[in-house]
Amino acid sequence: MRVLVTGGNGQLGRALKKVLPEKDSFFVDKEQMDITDKKEVLKKILKISPQVIIHCAAYTDVDGSELNQKLAFKVNRGGAANVAAAAKKISAAMVYISTDYVFDGRKKTPYSEAGKTNPLGIYGQSKLAGERQVQKILKKFFIVRTAWLYGEGKNFPKTILNLTKTKKEINVVSDQFGSPTYTLDLARGLSKLILTQKYGLYHFTNSGSCSWFQFAQKILKLKNKNNVKIIPITTQQWSKIKPGGAPRPNYTVLNTHKFQKTFKIKPRSWQSALKDYMKENNV
Predict the structure, then answer these.
(1) What is the pLDDT of residues 128-156, one digit of tens each?
(2) What are phi and psi of 97, to 5 degrees?
(3) Which of 200, 41, 66, 59 is nearest to 127 (CA)?
(4) pLDDT tens, position by position, 168-182
(5) What superfamily in CATH does domain 3-154+180-208+252-268 come from?
(6) Which pTM does this prediction carry?
(7) Domain locations in the chain as residue ranges
(8) Which residues contact 197 (CB under 8 A, 6 or more apart)?
(9) Catalytic residue at 111?
């Protein structure tokens, strides 16, 4: 099976390089294919002629999306539409990677795929618009919403550990809850999903949930950084320290039962995945 991955140098793209067969797997980044250029996308995809396209490329800067709204929609909605149109042309299936930020976080129980979407910020709005473009253009699609991704590249665990080099106290938000997800676990799930034709909308994250504060605590515990203190603060307090940021949902834990039942994959706990990530990547 020929598989094309967009956003090949991103965290998820790099994880997919580790799990997809080297033969017949193609990875492109924006230097090789500008997803906002419809003609370029069609030309590249026709040339590679994949059976499946895993669309990881996105504008993922949550705060930056508020300042660059046109760009966020151009990449996340327009780019997805361009890739979907090209996929349709060659009868390829498409996997669109989406986000927990399509929800407003007002619930206190995990969101199922049928949950009402109501994104608070431009990033979530643009990703939801991308979902709708894919659904409108294609019949052979998988939309996979995930959350709090970390892997090879810039991420939350590395940011926290870098801060410990210069700080003895670190402020971390304690009233936003989600499920940290190791890109390698998501990549393994996607590698099985694309072997099926069970198209539709799915949620995938590592199991369990925590706040950013609890996530940071666990990171330091695994590194035995007992000399650094994590200070819990509210979203409101953080907005005073760093004004002008995007509105963020307080609770975006995703219900993964549909993914588990359909593909016979049970995601491991976020704690187990984090431990392996730090060991495997010498973090």
Answers:
(1) 999 999 999 999 999 999 999 999 999 99
(2) -85, 120
(3) 59
(4) 999 999 999 999 999
(5) NAD(P)-binding Rossmann-like Domain (3.40.50.720)
(6) 0.96
(7) 3-154+180-208+252-268
(8) 93, 140
(9) no
